[in-house]
Amino acid sequence: MKINETFQTQVTKECDVFVAGGGIAGISAALAAAREGAKVILAEREFALGGLATAGLITIYLPLCDGMGRQVSFGLAEELLRLSVKDDLIEDKNPIHWFDDYDIETRAKAERYEVRFNAQYFALLAEKELLKAGVEILYGTLCCGVDIADRHIDHIVCENKSGRFAVKVGSVVDCTGDADICYRAGVATEKFGKGNVLAAWHYSLSDSEGYKLRMKGAADVPDEVKNKVDYGEQSLNNKRYSGLDGDELSGQVIDSHSVMLADIVKARGKDKSYMPVTMPTIPQVRMTRRIVGAYTLDTAEEHTFVADSIGMVSDWRRRGPVWEVPFGTLYGKDAKNLITAGRNTSVTDNMWDVMRVIPCCAVTGQAAGIAAAMTDDFDALDVTQLQEKLKNAGVILHEKDL
């Protein structure tokens, strides 16, 4: 079968659920769909899973709690957190008050339910879990085209070392981080207008500091801080990066490498034992493009009951806020069998800075994966059935039920 006579693209694979992108959202979506019995293909551009969390060295699994002693994110969000520090490979802040049985008052005064993990080990463990669940992983695979008719995606066109090929799909989960599938399918999207500040996180090893994550540049900072060009040590240059242009991304990576090299040379000038250990292998951009969904979530909706909630998230930047995430933020109206997860979901710019981080990616990924295993028409899905499956998987949907 050929879906395009011009390029003679061969259909070589078929699946119930196609997951584009193997970051935390993609891992969660693929695991959730496979555990529902779906035949799942996960296509990942790099040759390791985890996205920014691993290849990008953003090795901070941000909080599953509200900072007031209550855990709010459950299911795969917690399963993956515990997997990330399996065998006690915790770099910092062992959350003993969450791993053991403590009361809410003690937890409220303690460190939040977050960890620092080893990127390489987490990527390997995640791969093992996906393979155990029966997921077919395609590494080094770029999703470069979409065959869509009557609002239904029939095939995803991919390219890897074998050449160009197509995958016949039932439903599709866009976990690319840049809403690439949405964009290529002609689905309505929005860009992050402010752009990304340069980041150059990397790891080092020295006699004086040991194994250390050197967080150079603005990575996990509030949006109002990002909006200021000059704010001391965090300001590496006066550029902004959309993350959606090939030439610009090459320049961003070169700029990042320049900062890392200067930091290494400076550190070695003070301590000859200092050695660079690991640098990111993907651009460290955070917010680029998202779907325009059936619903758009805003930060003003904290502590608001949401009838179609698929789970809860907290604010990693400050204690207190909790949001119930509407199912309507995961899909749009332009492609009925396309759903999103992670930083692709439909949120305002203010909410984007909350939803882009690891726990939120896991929460939305799990819901998207289960939904994708249930249907190829998300607008027609009975959300109550999805919610039952989520609850059976250990997810608490509403703040009133905590």
Task: Explain what you see.
- It is a single chain.
- With 402 residues, the protein is of the alpha/beta class.
- The protein is built from eleven helices and 17 strands.
- It has two domains: 11-192 and 288-401, FAD/NAD(P)-binding domain (3-Layer(bba) Sandwich); 202-278, no CATH class.
- The strands form five sheets. Strands 1, 2, 6, 7, 8, 9 and 17 form a seven-stranded mixed sheet that branches. The chain has a three-stranded antiparallel sheet with strand order 3-5-4. Strands 12-11-13 form a three-stranded antiparallel sheet, with helices on one face.
- The chain is globular and about 65 Å long.
Give the SSE map.
Elements: E1 11-20, H1 24-35, E2 40-43, E3 60-61, H2 76-84, E4 90-92, H3 96-99, H4 104-109, E5 115-117, H5 119-133, E6 136-138, E7 142-149, E8 152-160, E9 163-174, H6 180-184, E10 189-191, E11 202-206, E12 210-214, H7 223-226, H8 246-270, E13 275-278, E14 289-291, E15 309-314, E16 322-326, E17 338-340, H9 349-355, H10 358-374, H11 383-392
Parallel strand pairs: 1-2, 1-9, 2-6, 9-17
Antiparallel strand pairs: 3-5, 4-5, 7-8, 8-9, 10-14, 11-12, 11-13, 15-16
Helix pairs in contact: 1-5, 1-10, 2-10
Q: Could you name the CATH topology of the largest domain? A: FAD/NAD(P)-binding domain
- The computed structural class is alpha/beta
Residue runs with pLDDT of under 50 for 5 or more positions? 222-233
Give the integer mean of the pLDDT values.
Answer: 93
- What is the total domain count? 2
Radius of gyration: 21 Å
- Provide a count of the helices: 11
CATH architecture descriptor text of the largest domain = 3-Layer(bba) Sandwich
Approximate helicity band:
25-40%
